Amino acid sequence: MDTQNAINETQSSYDRIGELKAFDEGKLGVKGLVDAGIKKIPNMFIRPLEDRLKDFGTSSKNKSVPIIDFASLSDENNDRTAEIAKEIIVASKEWGFFQVINHGVPEELLEKMIDRCRMFHEQDAEMKKKFYTRDFQSKSVYFFSNHDLYKSKAACWRDTFYVNARHTGGEVDPKELPPICKDVILEYINPMHKLGDRILMLISIGLGLESECLGNMAKGTKSWSIANNYYLACPEPELTMGTDAHVDTSFITILLQDSIGGLQVLHENKWVDIEPVTGGLIINFGNILQMITNDMIKGACHRVIAKSAGPRLSVAFFFSGVFSSEKIHGPIKELTSEDNPSIYRKFSTEEIIKSFFSKSLEEVGDNLDYFKLKYHGDGN
């Protein structure tokens, strides 16, 4: 019997629900499996053969997402501001991603954020268990492995520590944060907001809108969240994923990653590695921004591959717009016309976030179809 047939036979006979529950109730995540010394990944992490076979290839090494330098960006240099705004719009149309350097966030803070988040995941297991939950809607600070654990075809090889300020008016109670990384998280929030505001200003300018247009929409109650993902070295990386392919449910995401890499973006039907840049931050556009710009900016499908090297750390800062409010969004009027009518119906950010958590990560890409006017018979 060859290796694949052995995998298929084992997967068809094992108790998947029982294995998922045992993993979940252990509250130790993927790190608990690695610490136990496993040599093969449990069946719950093995992707179906058809998914592995239809995987897109990886692009050649001579392609990479644009790197945009903010060094000369200032209020006084209007010409350079216009140039950078244009670069971002081009990047959004061609890639849905770019990397930014000289962004104003101190490199020491970025290094400290990675280091302290690593310390959270590698601290005493009993301390970490106190934060473990699947109550994602009412908790603000929590630890888990795979938000879609019981919905996905296969679990992904990662653990996550999450700080959720979407439904708390953008505020987080410092007493809820783990002592091991509390100070750096509180220090990290304001620089991310400042950078996010600058990027939304530049996108607004690039689209021909008032400079504060998108910033005002995204800030609202300053809704944001942080996902710190911990990708452990995997004994069989070819059988699983670090994170399934998806588009972020956000306006924009600012991602900090360490030097190991593994993030890929889908470009021209091939996966392209986003190589780490020292001191750089990765910016990608989410499906909320795609909807309000009427597809002028599109969210990019991306994933993280499992690797034999690790652990890899990443910190994603999501700007999600107004959450748990009556505020209704729709395509911006200035971006629609008789020749370019609205593609999407009106929606609330809360509606989108709830839809996200009701599905597996691999299904989230279908979310936008539900919000299209044509889907509801309201358009032509």
TrEMBL record:
Keywords carried by this UniProt record: Iron, Metal-binding, Oxidoreductase
PROSITE patterns in the cross-refs: FE2OG_OXY (PS51471)
Coiled coil: none
A GO molecular-function annotation: metal ion binding
Pfam family, one: DIOX_N
Domain Fe2OG dioxygenase positions: 222-321
Family per record: Belongs to the iron/ascorbate-dependent oxidoreductase family.
PANTHER family assigned to the protein according to its UniProt record, in alphabetical order: 1-AMINOCYCLOPROPANE-1-CARBOXYLATE OXIDASE HOMOLOG 1-LIKE (PTHR10209:SF429), OXIDOREDUCTASE, 2OG-FE II OXYGENASE FAMILY PROTEIN (PTHR10209)
The protein's name in its UniProt record: Fe2OG dioxygenase domain-containing protein
Gene from which the chain derives: LOC110728057
